[in-house]
Amino acid sequence: MGTHDTDTDPLPTPATRAGRDGLDAILANPGRSVIALDFDGTLAPIVADPEQARAHPDAVPALARLAPKVASVAVVTGRPADVAVRHGGFAGVPGLEHLTVLGHYGAERWDAVSGEVTAPPPHPGVAAVRAELPGFLDRAGAWQGTWIEEKGRAVAVHTRRATDPQAAFEALRAPLTDLATRHGLIVEPGRLVLELRPPGMDKGVALLDHVRETAATAVLYAGDDLGDLPAFAAVEKLRSDGVPGVLVCSGSDEVTELRERADLVVEGPEGVVGLLRALADQISPSGV
């Protein structure tokens, strides 16, 4: 896994029976299968500044090989859809006509076919929190290195650059939850980030809606962070409803919950890219 030779990526075997059944179902009927992927930490390596995050250089070529062979490839992300499209390099790529980006946990949608983003009006609580947050952080102790990321329909507080990132994260979690609640929002914890966003937006809801919309008979979801747990739960629900699925963890020692629930663990974005290439090979072997 992770080699750049497209002929040598072996298709890994999931560790669980449910995962193996899900993979078999995708291979048996790829045209009715959805391949869904988180962006940061899954298609793009985690970096200190999210504005510098870019898809793994081999991600788009791998997706372009796989996408024409399946019902849909969906990138499910907390980022604004247009930001994920820009940072992923997804626009105007031959082979990615079946790509959909579900941004802001599904509140925004970008389809490669139209190249347009559709979205409902923003939640008023986000603007209120955005205005209050800088002074709030100052009063909370002005955690040096803590900074605010503007996400359009959400706002996030990062502690990765703080002197003690985990201590800053833990100290801010309760007060930020109080602030979010006051404005009708919720807090979504992640890898040294606390995101304040409207309720009812999560990757599980977005994934279920997309799978049902495409009438898929099998699904694979790959993620790396706590925000991906709802999508994992959605795949587990689909399984209970008779739709086989595969849960993939883009390996991280920072989020053990995901690793423990996954059918298959790969080594970060490099491993995810290798998995996508291997799937493309298996669905339509070279020369066929």
Q: How would the global form be characterised? A: globular
The proportion of residues in beta strands is: 15-25%
Order of helices and strands: HEHEHEEEHEEHEEHEHEHEH
Major beta sheet, strand line-up: 5-4-3-2-1-10-11-12
Unreliable stretches covering 5 or more consecutive residues:
1-6
Query: If you average the pLDDT, what whole number results?
Result: 91
Provide a concise account of the structure shown.
The chain is an alpha/beta fold and 288 residues long. It is built from nine helices and twelve strands.
Overview of this protein structure:
The chain has 288 residues and is an alpha/beta fold. It has helices at 17-28, 59-66, 81-88, 124-139, 165-182, 203-214, 229-240, 256-261, 268-283; strands spanning 33-37, 72-76, 99-103, 108-111, 116-118, 147-150, 155-158, 186-189, 193-197, 218-223, 245-250, 264-266. An 8-stranded mixed β-sheet has the order 5-4-3-2-1-10-11-12, with helices on both faces. The protein starts with 16 loop residues before the first helix and ends in a 5-residue tail after the last helix.
Supply the key terms.
alpha/beta; globular
Strand and helix map with partners:
Elements (H helix, E strand, L loop, with lengths): L16 H12 L4 E5 L21 H8 L5 E5 L4 H8 L10 E5 L4 E4 L4 E3 L5 H16 L7 E4 L4 E4 L6 H18 L3 E4 L3 E5 L5 H12 L3 E6 L5 H12 L4 E6 L5 H6 L2 E3 L1 H16 L5
Helix pairs in contact: 2-9, 6-7
